[in-house]
């Protein structure tokens, strides 16, 4: 009796737990699975169950069994204008009062003009199993009941064009355009459909010419290019005329000169985009190619204008202060302009990266034909990146020079056996001005990997010297007072006490005497060096002329000949 009661208690407990579990599962079941649209549980699990399939027309002429069959038969019916038949491919559940043929025609126009259909990616199986993707794709080999064909953006948000596999009670599963896609057709058509200008064209011009282009598009595209080119030419001439009325030394002239070409490019791209948006809406593939290119040109022109203005203003500021920057006492100014040059290059890099990022985000290039074209050039991209390693290294070197200040704008440097002033530190090259007003363009890598002399890094004063070859019999003690006379009277000699006369080398023909004195800076030092050479040569020549008899001292070196007696 006790065992029987225990077994009854256990069975009752199991029944209660089973009932509770059933209630909990029912409560957790999503509303979408309980209402008019649920996921089938049975021989066709990957299908949406609907109470009634609200598609229009007769589906006898359409292949709704597979995703590819749906798109192919829908596009074929639309091309022939059989809108009543084509309406069978649309789920009108959310548009009960809509003009079904009009909505069908609008969807066909969107698919034909604005959507790039990936035919290779459309499965020709009822379960839409993707047999082409790699194993890394999570959907590879998996049945699907909903597929996104494309995405069109309007009102600042993207709208998907999707097809779904649905099944009505007692019917076979079919693929149709989803009810949400059909509900969005009207708004998308308003944004992507033909303009009023296009609708006013004769029907013959709206017929298809080749590819997906209508005859009016074949005619309109060159016209748009000509209108853009005309606007660019007007802009170029206007800026040129404006510049001719300004003085070349003004900031406005420099800025106009810098933005001349970028502004011309902006006029072309902006006019091209404006005419397209106002009068012409080109069809799908052409639209997918032109949109990214148009956006790239506009962004490139805007970035070009910004960078040109920054470059022009900086060059104007530094070029007008060249003499002041080269002054020995202006270390602080040289430091300031060199740091500003580095900041300018960093800002330039940030603007370029921001522009590239904006183009990628705004153009939605990954969903367009343009991305396929870009991706097909992947090998070329790798080659270009490999080739750009040197350029990227030079850019980093220029920033390193600017912040480490090994060479500042206005510094006097001795590079490649030439005395120069640093005029500009660019991304890949330094512009140097020689003492005779020539310009030397040197790679920045030469200033980071090789040694060079910076004569104004710490103390701009430097010792200048003149070397003269004298006869070995020259009286050096007689020459020293002459040199002291020069250093005592020359204004560019910084400290006469530092001036020295030294015999630095000697051979059988002559000895080399060096005359050294300190100058305040390289520019004064060069002038003083030239005067010192002239003064000492003139004095020594006079002393040599006075010593006419051998073996009295001779000062200037002489060539000696040894004659052998013929008898010997």
- Our count of domains comes out at 5
Tally of alpha and pi helices? 18
End-to-end distance: 157 Å
* Integer-rounded radius of gyration: 43 Å
- Count of strand segments: 15
Mean pLDDT figure: 76
Q: Strand portion, in percent?
A: 5-15%
Question: Any idea what the shape is?
Answer: elongated
Major sheet summary line:
5 strands, mixed
The helicity comes to: 40-55%
Low-confidence stretches: 1-6, 25-43, 373-377
What is the SS-derived class?
alpha+beta
Short description:
By secondary structure, the chain is an alpha+beta fold. It has helices at residues 2-28, 31-34, 67-79, 83-86, 100-113, 179-192, 196-199, 215-244, 251-278, 284-319, 322-326, 331-362, 369-376, 378-387, 389-404, 446-449, 476-489, 522-546, and strands at residues 37-39, 48-50, 146-154, 157-167, 174-177, 208-210, 213-214, 412-415, 418-425, 429-434, 439-443, 453-454, 462-470, 500-506, 511-519.
């Amino acid at each position: 009796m006790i065992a029987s009661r225990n077994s009854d208690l256990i069975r009752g407990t199991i029944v209660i737990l089973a009932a509770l579990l059933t209630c909990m599962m029912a409560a957790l079941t999503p509303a979408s699975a309980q209402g008019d649209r649920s996921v089938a549980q049975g021989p066709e699990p990957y299908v949406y169950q609907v109470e009634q399939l609200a598609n229009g027309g007769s589906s006898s002429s359409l292949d709704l069994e597979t995703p590819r069959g749906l798109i192919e038969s829908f596009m074929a019916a639309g091309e022939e204008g059989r809108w009543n038949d084509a309406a069978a491919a649309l789920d009108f559940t959310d548009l009960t009062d809509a003009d079904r043929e009009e909505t069908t025609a609008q969807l066909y126009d969107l698919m034909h003009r604005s959507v790039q259909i990936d035919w290779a990616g459309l499965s020709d199986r009822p379960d839409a199993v993707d047999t082409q993707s790699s194993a890394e794709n999570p959907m590879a080999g998996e049945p699907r009941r909903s597929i996104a064909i494309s995405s069109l953006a309007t009102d600042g948000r993207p709208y998907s064009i999707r097809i779904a596999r649905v099944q009505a009670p007692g019917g076979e599963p079919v693929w149709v355009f989803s009810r949400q896609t059909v509900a969005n057709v009207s708004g998308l058509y308003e944004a992507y459909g033909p303009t009023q200008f296009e609708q006013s064209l004769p029907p013959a011009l709206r017929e298809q010419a080749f590819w997906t282009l209508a005859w009016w598009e074949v005619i309109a595209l060159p016209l748009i290019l000509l209108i853009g080119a005309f606007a660019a030419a007007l802009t170029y001439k206007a800026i040129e005329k404006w510049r001719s009325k300004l003085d070349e030394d003004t900031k406005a002239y420099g800025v106009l000169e810098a933005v001349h070409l970028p502004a011309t490019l902006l006029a072309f791209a902006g006019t091209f985009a404006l005419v397209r948006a106002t009068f012409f809406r080109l069809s799908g593939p052409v639209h997918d190619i032109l949109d990214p290119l148009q956006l790239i040109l506009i962004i490139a022109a805007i970035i070009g204008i910004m960078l040109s203005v920054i470059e022009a203003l900086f060059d104007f500021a530094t070029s007008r202060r060249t003499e002041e920057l080269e002054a020995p006492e202006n270390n602080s100014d040289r430091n300031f302009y060199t740091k500003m040059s580095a900041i300018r290059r960093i800002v330039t890099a940030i603007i370029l990266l921001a522009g590239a990022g904006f183009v990628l985000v705004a153009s939605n290039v990954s969903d367009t034909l343009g991305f396929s074209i870009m991706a097909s050039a992947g090998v070329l991209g790798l080659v270009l990146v490999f080739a750009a390693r040197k350029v990227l290294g030079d850019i980093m070197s220029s920033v390193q020079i600017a912040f480490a200040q090994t060479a500042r704008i206005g510094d006097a440097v001795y590079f490649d056996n030439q005395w120069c002033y640093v005029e500009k530190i660019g991304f890949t090259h330094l512009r140097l001005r020689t003492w005779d007003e020539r310009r030397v363009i040197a790679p920045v890598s030469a200033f980071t990997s090789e040694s060079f002399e910076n004569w104004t890094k710490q103390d701009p004063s430097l010792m200048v010297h003149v070397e003269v070859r004298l006869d070995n019999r020259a009286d050096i003690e007689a020459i020293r007072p002459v040199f002291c006379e020069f250093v005592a009277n020359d204004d560019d000699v910084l400290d006469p006490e530092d001036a020295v006369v030294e015999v630095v080398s000697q051979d059988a023909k002559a000895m080399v005497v060096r005359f050294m004195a300190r100058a305040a800076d390289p520019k004064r030092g060069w002038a003083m060096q030239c005067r010192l050479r002239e003064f000492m040569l003139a004095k020594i020549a006079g002393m040599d002329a006075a010593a006419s008899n051998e073996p009295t001292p001779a000062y200037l070196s002489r060539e000696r000949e040894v004659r052998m007696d013929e008898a010997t």
